[in-house]
Amino acid sequence: MFTTTGSRGLYKAPLSKGLLLVLNGLTVMLTLLPQYQDMFIYNLQAITHQHQVWRLICGRFVCLDVKDSFCSSLLIYNFRIFERRFGTRKFASFLLGTWCLSALVDLLLAQAVLYLFDYEVEEVSAGLLAPVFALFVPFYLSVPRMPVTQVLGLIHITNKSLVYIVGLQLLTSSPFMWLLALSGLISGGLYHSNVLWLQKIVFVPAWVSRIGRFVLEPIFSSSQPSDETPLGMGATLDIQRQQRMDLLDQQLLLAQYNEARRNTSHQPQAGLLQWTRLFPSLRHRGQNRPPMQPHPQAQTHQSTQGAGGGRNTFLFLCVSHCFMFFCLCKNFGSLLQKNANQSPLFSFVFTSLLKLICPLQTPDCAFDPQVARLVEMGFSRIDALEALRASNNDINLATNFLLQH
């Protein structure tokens, strides 16, 4: 939930899932049945003076406060990474060892408060709180810090910040919660450091683990998340994080590659002119192209015929355009001579138009050898003429355009 290592959900964490379901279910039941809450009150004075030792079990198992239950559930859900890393049996041994040690440390801390401040601690918060605080010890020592963001450029937010905030919220929920938190940290440090070989003294036996694997694990086991790419479960958190980062890098590269392909397919052609907008007919250039001949001799003969036909068309177009140009010049010249003295602006406008008419009346196939060369390459004559006209009779640009389209 808060960290970025491992898979989401409770996959490969049956003990964490069982604790969440059972403890929260009992909390809801006791909230609905308040007459039974007295049996689960964690009263240190009743334990020491009235010898109600059974309260060490009932009072340290179920939370009576919904807020404490919610915060501890969030922490248990986050600390499920240790069950994946250590295994269910070793994780259960850690919870069992810290639970037993914290019971002794609670009584010692209560006596220390009585001796130092002359104040007797009677009742503290009930629930599986001390082992939850004990899990902060391996969380602090084993989980690496990864920067996430900064607040005002001074406060660094990491992947562990929200976990500590939830722990602080749980710490301030009741007046004597600090006693349980200190007890849990002390017991967690002792068990994690294996002081006096505690890990060999207090642990879950193998036969209990086998019974739980066959009886309880099928009930509380969770399937692998279907919306998540399967990952290899690394032996350490660093390996799991590296696997996650490698997968994210692969997904990022794949997304960039797909985005580049989409941009290439939809991006208009670079240059001053957008060929596909000016000449949409060239998108179907294959329909205008003449069928290819199977023999090279037939292709050479066809290209020669195309070149000859191009010369005849060139001569006809040159004569026709020259005649049209001559007529236009004659008409405009007589019009200018008639209106030059009356309107100098009119004379200037028509002179400019005459200069513009000359390049516009240049024949499309003024460079017939270039058309013949493109036809010899296998392009149709219509496409070659349009490409040359669009590229201002530059055969290199025309060839690139025909090859790309």
TrEMBL record:
Which stretches does the entry tag as region Disordered?
A: 284-307
**GO terms of molecular function:** serine-type endopeptidase activity
Q: Which residues cross the membrane?
A: 15-33, 94-117, 123-141, 162-191
Q: Which SMART domains match?
A: UBA (SM00165)
Assigned GO CC terms: membrane
Polar residues composition-biased segments:
296-305
Annotated keywords? Membrane, Transmembrane, Transmembrane helix
Tell me what topology the record assigns in the membrane: Multi-pass membrane protein
Q: Which Gene3D superfamilies match?
A: DNA helicase RuvA subunit, C-terminal domain, Rhomboid-like
Source organism's superkingdom? Eukaryota
What is the name listed in the Swiss-Prot or TrEMBL entry for this protein?
UBA domain containing 2
Q: Which gene encodes it?
A: UBAC2
